[in-house]
Amino acid sequence: MKIVLMGAPGCGKGTQSPYVQERYGLCHLSTGDMLREAVTRKTVNGLLAKDAMNAGKLVSDDIVFGIVKDSIKNPECRYGYILDGFPRTLKQAQLMDEAGEKVDKVIEFSAPDEVILQRTSGRWIHKASGRTYHEVFRPPQSPGKDDVTGEELYQRKDDRRDVCEKRLEIYKNETRPLAEYFSKLGVYTMINADRTVDEVRKNIAALLDPIAVATGLK
Ligand code: AP5
Ligand code: MG
């Protein structure tokens, strides 16, 4: 089962991905997480991506596609994958198509701009698991600590409000047109992400369960 989660910064892609991953045994490929890892490790891709990411701009299509192409070959992706934040341009979608990677479902998360900006500005993340928290909407049991491991949480450099506004603008200009592209392929659905985490999760499960049954994953 091959799934794309698409949506503006802070709409909840990373929050929902662990549930989808666990429910269907898929691998979770967040291009944002993989690029941040490359920046931390100071790899060639990381050095090339760093400035664009800190400014809220997109990293080049070739770099991002290269990372995804390699990752989907990993054994943990044998039952399929969740692409979180990829493709983000028409070019990236075409590169996947040319590589013969057809996705079963593209789910776009929709929420008003002000909700998006509130979510990114209060976000805290547990690096190892990807679990997300929010100062107001989803606070951890102890401030700054992961509920499960007790480890430190961190905040992203690109979650400053001005950078988030830039990311949102780029989303509208570069990524939203993909809705039409995937609609033509008959795989696109938009969901209301301005609801509780549980409500969004149930909505996603209702969309994906029939595909999981059809592909023998459930
Ligand atoms: P990336 O890391 O993918 O950032 P993004 O797409 O902007 O999305 P976010 O991770 O900010 O948001 P999310 O939807 O995961 O929200 P989350 O679940 O954390 O990309 C970063 C950068 O990398 C890009 O700017 C670009 O430079 C580069 N890049 C990545 N992919 C690329 C590509 N394909 N091409 C080119 N460049 C690329 O939730 C946010 C907060 O809200 C959390 O605090 C959470 O607890 C809370 N929350 C979530 N859901 C709810 C809810 N239902 N109710 C209340 N609170 C909620
Ligand atoms: Mg994310």
Automatic annotation (TrEMBL):
Keyword set, alphabetical order: Kinase, Nucleotide-binding, Transferase
Domain of life assignment: Eukaryota
Keyword Kinase: yes
Pfam families, sorted: ADK, ADK_lid
UniProt key word Transferase: yes
UniProt domain Adenylate kinase active site lid: residue ranges: 123-158
Gene Ontology molecular functions: AMP kinase activity; ATP binding
PROSITE patterns recorded: ADENYLATE_KINASE
InterPro entries: Adenyl_kin_sub, Adenylat/UMP-CMP_kin, Adenylat_kinase_CS, Adenylate_kinase_lid-dom, P-loop_NTPase
CDD domains: ADK (cd01428)
Family designation: Belongs to the adenylate kinase family.
PANTHER family in the record: NUCLEOTIDE KINASE
Family annotation (NCBIfam families): adk, PRK00279.1-3
Protein name from the UniProt record: Putative mitochondrial Adenylate kinase
Organismal lineage: Eukaryota, Discoba, Euglenozoa, Kinetoplastea, Metakinetoplastina
